[in-house]
Amino acid sequence: MGDREDRPTARAREHLANERTLFAWIRTALALMGLGFVVARFGIFLRSVALQQGSVSPSGTSASEVIGVLLVAAGVLVTAVSLRRFLRARTQIEEGHFVPELFGDVLLVAITLAAGVGLVVYLVVSG
To answer: Using CA atoms, how far apart are residues 71 and 113, in angstroms rounded to an integer?
Structure first.
């Protein structure tokens, strides 16, 4: 009796957990995109200050702009991968055979680590 009545509740909990995971990755993606925007704009700000002081020529793309664009692109990629993962997990939950996906986890962590390492390198080189 208990197993039959608990299954819809358990499945609902699994779907809700899947949604919470998606929203956590969306927050991470938004943070990456926001950070990328700030890093890129900060580079433009520094260049304009340097131009006012007459120490830099106005042409060229700074490293902060490149890193900023890469962070925004990483945020977009994290969003796409997390949505794909959410949809796959939703289907597996409905079919009753969830299979954890290691590749998606590793890819998302690798993107986040690469973004962090890129920022550290930039800060060390430019500081």
So the answer is: 11
